[in-house]
Design brief:
Layout: H1 3-11, H2 16-19, H3 24-39, H4 43-56, H5 61-73, H6 77-90, H7 95-107, H8 111-123, H9 131-153
Length: 154
């Protein structure tokens, strides 16, 4: 397909992935590769794939969440916050996005916002079965201990 055909397809509402000839299986293979790169700590390569996936299918909250998570792991907290905020607008129940955004808020000294996200993540897991919500519980405990010690040393 030529560039003008791509443009025509996209301007007529055809999703970019479809206009470019990507099947859902192709998209899932790319996502699997990006996830595998994350698991091996190859964050920069994973970031490129997640960025491509959100361009191909911007309606997929899970791709935005993975992009935000990758930015968080890379220490790019200021960049991750708006990505994770968008994720949560798309899917308010994404516990991973809440906890990752909380970690970014902690790293950028926005502690009230961090606590709000952590509490929300914990409320979403009343059965206490979600390991991501367990991470939120650990962070709340760590923040509590930090402030308790800071108060004691005073």
């Amino acid at each position: 397909m030529r560039h003008l055909e791509y443009l025509k397809a996209i301007t007529h509402g055809v999703p970019l992935a479809q206009a470019l000839g990507f099947s859902e299986a192709d998209v899932q293979k790319i996502a699997g590769l990006a996830a595998a790169l994350c698991q091996t700590g190859r964050w920069a390569a994973a970031l490129k794939l997640w960025g491509g996936l959100v361009s191909l299918q911007p309606e997929r909250a899970e791709f935005w969440s993975a992009l935000g998570s990758t930015l968080t792991r890379m220490g790019r907290h200021e960049e991750a916050i708006p990505v994770l905020t968008l994720t949560l607008r798309m899917d308010p129940t994404d516990t991973a996005a809440l906890v990752n955004r909380a970690e970014c808020y902690i790293a950028t000294a926005q502690l009230e916002a961090a606590v709000a996200d952590l509490e929300r993540a914990i409320r979403q897991d009343m059965a206490e079965t979600d390991p991501v919500a367990d991470r939120a519980r650990q962070l709340v405990y760590a923040l509590h201990e930090f402030f308790r010690r800071a108060h004691l040393s005073g």
